[in-house]
């Protein structure tokens, strides 16, 4: 591209893009790169075909009622000494009779779309060489229609709209919006579509047709002077042949002379006659397209080079394959399977050529499940303290039977503890499910490189996912076995086992003694429940330590807004508002005190569910538990309280002997 640009100058840019269009069309890759071009848009009977024929000075487009243009026509005009036409799908054949060009367009259209007035987005490439044209490339799109005709589908209007938007929504595409002067400009279908993709009118060129058919006493001066609906590239007026002229085979050259005479003689247009008409339109389009190609070429060249490097990288993997080698397919298959295995391992182990910077995935996601999600699931298990007290009472009484017990039986403690340990199965199995799902997601990401071989991709994904699911069952069996082992024997002599004495004190201090006052987490959070009168929701930089939660104006941590001690704090979820997409959790004081200024709750909001779960897990490390109490702590606490109030003598001076401790 660079050599071609430097060698041929500005006048060769359109020819360069024409060659690229032909190359992409032949490869079927026309949508990979956005080539600079001009798309012609307009409603039915707006005069699009006449404008194009005037540019070529030949009758060559199909005409009739209803939708005539049913496939995009890429019309490439090339200045030459002789006049002829060529189709990309008819290589080597030159058309000198333009009636045959029309017939070939109709035949090629019917070949793809059928005879039922259907449409297709596959373009027809036509190149016209002539001494009467300026080098130019236009894409003629189907006219905008409202009502289905014949066997057309009911959504034909939407299909045509989607096809047009596919072309004009590209930033590299100039829009030639053709509008008849005898209709209200505000109702122009072409300008309406153009405004959707080009609201500032930077890429749109307005063409006003049928100026000679306006009601007597009216004119389009305000439109043509770019005052009514301004466009950056302005408007150009043209006068096409009438249907009577076309039926009478009026020569296009004679029609262009009549057009010139119309603008020179009309009192409203004579002052702008030099800026009106088909010859001026050709000149403007040639200049605009050349300048547009020049402006977009650097970006286009970088994209092309990027794709070239990507393709060369893919080709490099197959350079040692010899076509005559009977084992080449087997080698290719083995290489792709080995590459899949390497990619999967790298995603789990954490190393890799391509690092995802948008979200956690693979091994990092599994790490989060183990160290954040699983502990949090354990802590938020459902627990009913009142029900537990009743179970303890029934267990002790049932073990004593008809006797009135003096000491707390070990069997009662074991029965209650075992029942609580069994509840660990739920969070454990849920974590296995989450890990398995992440492994399958990783498999799907790794098989994307096999997308060019759909059957291989599908089978690889099926086999590996099936193996993971087989392992899932065995893993769950092993997890359940480990829990059953713990249930089978309660070792109260273990050094990590604590008795009822000091249970509450140790459970409240264990987290802080483990981590000290070190920083546990930093990140952005939004304080959600500050009223609008006080500034509304605002984002701050939060720093969580083992003893406090502080927030700052920004991540430089110079201007501290507040420091909240974590004593007596708990966390609970808050339902999302239908007006907000954020995920919210709240901190509150268990002693019914205000947490922050006049607020009983401090609502903190995150953008993603994973981020919220991570914050709650970090708060858990700092000793801030969810609203539901910890199971094992509450079990010991309730059991000790029940035993104390039921069996201990009501003597304030009574010594507490070792027999009251497990």
From TrEMBL:
SMART domains membership: DYNc, PH
Entry EC no(s): 3.6.5.5
**SUPFAM superfamilies in alphabetical order:** P-loop containing nucleoside triphosphate hydrolases, PH domain-like
Keyword Nucleotide-binding listed? The answer is yes
Instruction: Spell out the molecular function terms from Gene Ontology.
Output: GTP binding; GTPase activity; microtubule binding
GO BP, one annotated term: synaptic vesicle budding from presynaptic endocytic zone membrane
In the UniProt record, does the keyword Acetylation occur?
A: yes
- Annotated Pfam families: Dynamin_M, Dynamin_N, PH
* Compartments reported by the entry: Cytoplasm, Cytoskeleton
Identify this protein by name.
dynamin GTPase
């Amino acid at each position: 591209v660079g050599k071609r640009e430097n060698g041929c100058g500005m006048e060769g840019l359109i020819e360069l893009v024409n060659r690229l269009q032909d190359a992409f069309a032949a490869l079927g890759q026309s949508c990979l790169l956005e080539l600079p071009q001009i798309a012609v848009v307009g409603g039915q009977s707006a005069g699009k075909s006449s404008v194009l024929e005037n540019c070529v000075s030949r009758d060559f487009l199909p005409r009739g009622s209803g939708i005539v243009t049913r496939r995009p026509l890429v019309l490439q005009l090339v200045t030459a000494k002789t006049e002829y036409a060529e189709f990309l799908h008819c290589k080597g054949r030159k058309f000198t009779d333009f009636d045959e060009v029309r017939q070939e367009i109709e035949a090629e259209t019917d070949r793809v779309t059928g005879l039922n007035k259907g449409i297709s987005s596959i373009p027809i490439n036509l190149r016209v060489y002539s001494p009467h044209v300026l080098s130019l490339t236009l894409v003629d799109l189907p006219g905008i229609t409202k009502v289905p005709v014949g066997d057309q589908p009911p959504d034909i209007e939407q299909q045509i709209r989607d096809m047009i938007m596919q072309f004009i929504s590209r930033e590299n595409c100039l829009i030639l919006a053709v509008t008849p002067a005898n209709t209200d400009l505000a109702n122009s279908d072409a300008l309406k579509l153009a405004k959707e993709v080009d609201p500032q009118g930077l890429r749109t060129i307005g063409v006003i047709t049928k100026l000679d058919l306006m009601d007597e006493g009216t004119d389009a001066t305000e439109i043509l002077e770019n005052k009514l609906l301004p466009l950056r590239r302005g408007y150009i007026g043209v006068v096409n042949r009438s249907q009577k002229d076309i039926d009478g085979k009026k020569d296009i050259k004679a029609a262009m002379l009549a057009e010139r005479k119309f603008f020179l003689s009309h009192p409203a247009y004579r002052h702008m006659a030099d800026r009106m008409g088909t010859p001026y339109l050709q000149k403007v389009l040639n200049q605009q397209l050349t300048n547009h190609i020049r402006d977009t070429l650097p970006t286009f060249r970088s994209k092309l080079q990027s794709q070239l490097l990507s393709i060369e990288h893919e080709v490099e993997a197959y350079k040692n394959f010899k076509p005559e080698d009977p084992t080449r397919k087997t080698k290719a298959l083995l290489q792709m399977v080995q590459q899949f295995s390497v990619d999967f391992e790298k995603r789990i182990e954490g190393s890799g050529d391509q690092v995802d910077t948008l979200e956690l995935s693979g091994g990092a996601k599994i790490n989060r499940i183990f160290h954040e999600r699983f502990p949090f699931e354990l802590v938020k298990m459902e627990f009913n303290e009142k029900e537990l007290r009743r179970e303890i009472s029934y267990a002790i009484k049932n073990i004593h039977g008809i006797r009135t017990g003096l000491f707390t039986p070990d069997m009662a403690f074991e029965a209650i503890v075992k029942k609580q340990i069994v509840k660990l199965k739920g969070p454990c199995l849920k974590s296995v499910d989450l890990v398995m799902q992440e492994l399958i997601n990783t498999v799907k990401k790794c098989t994307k490189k096999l997308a060019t071989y759909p059957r291989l991709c599908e089978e690889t994904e099926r086999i590996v996912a099936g193996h993971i699911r087989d392992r899932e069952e065995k893993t769950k069996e092993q997890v359940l076995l480990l829990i059953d082992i713990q249930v089978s024997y309660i070792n109260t002599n273990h050094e990590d086992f604590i008795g009822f004495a000091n249970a509450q004190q140790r459970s409240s201090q264990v987290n802080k003694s483990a981590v000290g006052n070190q920083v546990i987490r930093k990140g952005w959070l939004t304080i959600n429940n500050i009223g609008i009168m006080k500034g509304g929701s605002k984002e701050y930089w939060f720093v969580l330590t083992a003893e406090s939660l502080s927030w700052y104006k920004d991540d430089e941590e110079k201007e501290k807004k507040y420091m909240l001690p974590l004593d007596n704090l708990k966390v609970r979820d808050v339902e999302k508002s239908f007006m907000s997409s954020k995920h919210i959790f709240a901190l509150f004081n268990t002693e019914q005190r205000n947490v922050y200024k006049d607020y009983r709750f401090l609502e903190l909001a995150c953008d993603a569910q994973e981020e919220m779960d991570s914050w709650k897990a970090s708060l858990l490390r700092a000793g801030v538990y969810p609203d539901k109490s910890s199971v094992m702590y509450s079990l010991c606490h309730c059991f000790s309280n029940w035993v104390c109030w039921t069996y201990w003598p009501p003597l304030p001076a009574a010594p507490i002997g070792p027999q009251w401790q497990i």
